[in-house]
């Protein structure tokens, strides 16, 4: 069964300061799917991935199994705009906010009109505070693998290695939660405003399409410095934030931007946790770095990569959903620019290779982990786009343009 995956852009997701942060993964199938077959495939997936089959309640964050994953079936044209509208309607008007006390995950099946030759579209929705895109991709692939099995034999029995729900503290007995989340410093680009926290905050996108020749030269410099692109891109973005903050404040002194790196070890044999688990399981450690107008960004990128590799080799402890245990706003203040960086580079070691797959930098807001703005670096066939998601309620277009323009200038500086 052929499929096309697509993670929605930040502006197509739904952020609520007091609610959840849904992550949406969309798989377009090549045939019309029978609902009962999908239910059978989901049931098998739940046996293998228990956190698909859970909810969380109480002050102590107790997780418990559910009888089933919420599944909704709708009629929808096999058209990208129509599918986006259905997802938007579900998130904005029906779910309102993703309540993890109800479920961690939902499935939406979009079916064609009766007798229409169009295929089905499968959408997996989950709370981003609980799992990330990698987990969603693994889960969705698993559902589709079972669908392929059932397509060949509708009566097939799907054998899976069942996994019980577990407590990360049992797997890693010496694990301790930090008193504070890993936000070591911040730069405010927008004046804090009084907001109604019960109302949703919608996000828009601005996209910087990097000139292919500039990106080619930038990658050549990355190779010359023996670095993958994620780390230097992250440093360039942080430097752009510092540039804009200095300009906005009318300052000439160095403005400090602190990054908190989260290196994802899932899939490494060093990890005690399966790769298909949840967002709250990753090796994390703080790597503060001061970035100013005169900083040598290649030196900083190399230093970050070196310290990251050493920290991984040292076997730093694991985290468990820090952001649900503590409030970032207590440390960072309102709408403070910080960074949570995943998979900063390739670090081969005896335990396996840590893969560089994505970089995300978020602004922390009130309540839960609420990315009012975030940057995603998207590369495909030599084409780089920097997608900056932001809320116009908190950031002006001028500020956002300033960040993107400053980043392009920093990329030009690093590509020489």
Automatic annotation (TrEMBL):
> Keywords, A to Z?
Acyltransferase, Transferase
Answer whether the UniProt record assigns the keyword Acyltransferase to this protein: yes
Domain of life the protein comes from: Eukaryota
Residues annotated as domain Phthiocerol/phthiodiolone dimycocerosyl transferase C-terminal: 207-349
Q: Which Gene3D superfamilies match?
A: Chloramphenicol acetyltransferase-like domain, Nonribosomal peptide synthetase, condensation domain
Q: Which SUPFAM superfamilies match?
A: CoA-dependent acyltransferases
| Acyltransferase in keyword set | yes
List, alphabetically, the InterPro entries matched: Alcohol_O-acetyltransferase (IPR052058), CAT-like_dom_sf (IPR023213), PapA_C (IPR031641)
| Recorded GO MF terms | acyltransferase activity
List, alphabetically, the PANTHER family matched. Answer: ALCOHOL O-ACETYLTRANSFERASE 1-RELATED
Mind telling me what this protein is named?
Alcohol acetyltransferase
| UniProt organism field | Carpediemonas membranifera
């Amino acid at each position: 069964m052929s499929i096309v995956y697509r993670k929605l852009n930040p502006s197509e997701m739904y952020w609520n300061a007091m609610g959840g942060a849904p992550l949406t993964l969309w798989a377009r199938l090549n045939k019309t799917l029978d609902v009962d077959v999908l239910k059978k495939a989901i049931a098998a997936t739940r046996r293998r991935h228990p956190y698909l089959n859970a909810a969380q309640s109480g002050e102590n964050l107790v997780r418990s199994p559910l009888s089933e994953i919420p599944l909704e079936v709708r009629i929808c044209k096999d058209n990208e705009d129509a599918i986006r509208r259905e997802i938007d309607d579900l998130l904005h008007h029906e779910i309102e906010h993703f309540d993890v006390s109800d479920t961690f995950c939902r499935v939406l099946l979009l079916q064609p009109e009766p007798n229409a030759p169009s295929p089905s579209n499968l959408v997996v929705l989950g709370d981003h505070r609980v799992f990330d895109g990698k987990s969603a991709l693994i889960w969705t692939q698993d559902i589709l693998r079972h669908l392929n099995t059932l397509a060949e034999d509708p009566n097939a029995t799907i054998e899976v290695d069942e996994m019980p729900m577990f407590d990360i503290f049992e797997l890693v007995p010496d694990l301790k939660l930090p008193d504070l989340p890993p936000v070591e410093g911040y730069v405010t680009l927008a004046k804090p405003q009084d907001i109604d926290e019960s109302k949703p905050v919608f996000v828009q996108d601005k996209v910087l399409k990097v000139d292919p020749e500039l990106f080619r030269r930038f990658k050549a410099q990355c190779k010359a410095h023996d670095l993958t692109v994620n780390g230097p891109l992250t440093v360039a973005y942080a430097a752009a934030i510092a540039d804009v903050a200095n300009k906005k404040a009318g300052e000439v002194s160095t403005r400090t931007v602190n990054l908190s790196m989260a290196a994802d070890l899932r899939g490494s044999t060093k990890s005690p946790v399966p790769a298909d688990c949840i967002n709250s399981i990753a090796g994390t450690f703080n790597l503060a770095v001061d970035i100013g107008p005169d900083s040598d960004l290649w030196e900083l990128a190399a230093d970050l990569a070196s310290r990251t590799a050493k920290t991984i080799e040292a076997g730093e402890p694991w985290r468990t959903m820090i952001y649900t245990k503590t409030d970032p706003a207590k440390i960072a203040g309102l709408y403070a620019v910080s960074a949570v960086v995943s998979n900063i580079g390739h670090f081969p070691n005896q335990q396996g290779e840590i893969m560089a797959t994505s970089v995300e930098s978020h602004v922390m807001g009130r309540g839960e982990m609420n990315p009012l703005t975030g940057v995603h670096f998207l590369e495909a066939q030599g084409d780089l786009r920097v997608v900056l998601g932001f809320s116009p309620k908190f950031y002006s277009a001028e500020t956002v343009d300033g960040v993107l323009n400053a980043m392009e200038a920093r990329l030009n500086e690093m590509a020489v």
